[in-house]
Amino acid sequence: MKYTFLVLLLSFLISYAQGDPEKGKEIFAKKCASCHTVGGGKLMGPDLQGVIAKRDIEWLKRFIQRPSALIEEKDPTALALLEEYGAPMPDLDISDEEVEHLIAFLRAAEAGGTGKGGLPSLYIPTLIAALIVAGVLTFLAVSSGKKEVEVKV
Ligand code: HEC
């Protein structure tokens, strides 16, 4: 019983830390697709296919949340993009959680083209994490002398 809370907490942390590509896709469609594609060519902004490999993840998160801050800091990559595209990307009020989902979506798109083909591979990290959690919980239960553990997810 006392592990149920732990499982819920861990699954929350895992899903938060990893972001959900499906949610990312929805956010992308709502807030980004007017200016960007992933693998469909340039619109007002760059095609974001390959951006995960090209840029540092922390930089990407900051750029997506507040492009204006990077321009103000005279970040060389942001300035080069601004020069290339002629117009700055607006600050879109993206929350910390939304940015994780967007990164997950971009990463998934990278792994499987536009996200149609490579779906199973998206879930491998989550699956591995879940297995580790289950393993740790079993170990805890066994070492504390219990025979079973209640895993409610
Ligand atoms: C109004 C149009 C517009 C919208 C909406 C928009 N962007 Fe952009 N984006 C741009 C432009 C223009 C650039 C390139 C110029 C610049 O850096 O400002 C850019 C650049 C980027 C880059 C940097 C690409 C690289 O090569 O490093 C990323 C990443 C990005 N956008 C992600 C997003 C995401 C994610 C969203 C949705 C939350 C979004 N953008 C919404 C116009 C937009």
UniProtKB/TrEMBL annotation:
SUPFAM superfamilies to which the protein is assigned, alphabetical: Cytochrome c
Source organism, top-level taxon: Bacteria
InterPro entries per UniProt: Cyt_c-like_dom, Cyt_c-like_dom_sf, Cytochrome_c550/c551-like
Domain Cytochrome c: 19-110
Signal peptide positions on this chain: 1-19
This protein's record includes keyword Heme: yes
Keywords from the named record: Electron transport, Heme, Iron, Membrane, Metal-binding, Signal, Transmembrane, Transmembrane helix, Transport
Gene Ontology MF, one: heme binding
Transmembrane parts of this sequence: 122-142
Protein name as annotated: Cytochrome c
Protein's organism: Aquifex aeolicus
